[in-house]
Design a protein that fits this description.
It is built from eleven helices and seven strands. The relative contact order is 0.13. The chain has 215 residues and is of the alpha+beta class. The N terminus is likely disordered. Strands 4-3-5-7-6 form a five-stranded antiparallel β-sheet. Strands 1-2 form a two-stranded antiparallel ribbon. It has two domains: 109 residues, Orthogonal Bundle (Ribosomal Protein S4 Delta 41, Chain A, domain 1); 87 residues, RNA-binding S4 domain (Structural Genomics Hypothetical 15.5 Kd Protein In mrcA-pckA Intergenic Region, Chain A, Roll). It is 42% helix and 10% strand.
Length: 215
């Protein structure tokens, strides 16, 4: 199973910089890495109905139980734009928290500043959100915070610091999840409360991720 491109292909400074669509095809599922383009007919996954795979002779090998667990972990990790060490550290943190580990992991992923900026409509994708956060275009509680991994807390305010007139048009019709609030005119959002698992709409199975790291 070619879940992700081989190491060294499309990687720069330990982060994948190759074609985003190749990652989606490798996992056979849309990960919405390019925002709205992924939902339209231009998405390569719409044009090519089969996932990316290496040429093989004869019948395809069945994916093992471990393979399915790895695939779900890769879906989550790539969707949120994390490297393996970052993702595993977040899993360890989720495991140490009270409650269900898989649910904790999902909530921690959603609380990342780059994800919150994406959910507020300040970026078309998480990849773009990570860039604008790193470039200092997002402020938390009035202070620029160029750290995509920052964990947003209840009551934090998140504001856009770039071209507000242009961005206001982009967020005009954007759906904002109920756990966030947004002043669309001034582009100032906030975390009303922590998200609930059923509000995230995850496209991966956190139970299989927990099983993957538990072996």
């Amino acid at each position: 199973m070619a879940a992700v491109p081989p190491r060294g292909e499309g990687y720069n400074m330990a982060r994948y910089t190759g074609p985003a669509c190749k990652l989606c095809r490798g996992l056979g599922q849309k990960l919405m890495l390019k925002g709205e383009r992924c939902a339209g007919p231009k998405c390569p996954l719409e044009k090519r109905h089969s996932p990316l795979r290496r040429q093989s002779h004869g019948r395809r090998r069945r994916i093992s139980e471990r393979g399915w667990e790895l695939k779900e972990k890769q879906k989550a990790r790539i969707s949120y734009g994390l490297m393996e060490r970052q993702f595993k550290n977040l899993f360890v943190r989720a495991k140490e928290m009270p409650g269900i580990t898989g649910d904790n992991l999902l909530i921690l992923l959603e609380r990342r500043l780059d994800n919150v900026a994406y959910r507020l409509g300040f970026a078309a994708s998480r990849r773009e959100a990570r860039q604008i956060v790193s470039h200092g275009h997002i402020a938390v509680n009035g202070r620029k915070l160029p750290f995509p991994s920052y964990m947003v807390n209840e009551g934090d305010t998140i504001s856009f610091q770039g071209d507000k007139e242009l961005k206001a048009k982009e967020v005009e019709d954007r759906f904002i999840p109920p756990w966030l609030s947004l002043d669309r005119e001034n582009l100032v959002g906030g975390m009303v409360r922590y998200p609930e698992v059923n509000e995230v709409g995850a496209t991966f199975d956190t139970r299989l991720i927990v099983e993957y790291y538990s072996k």
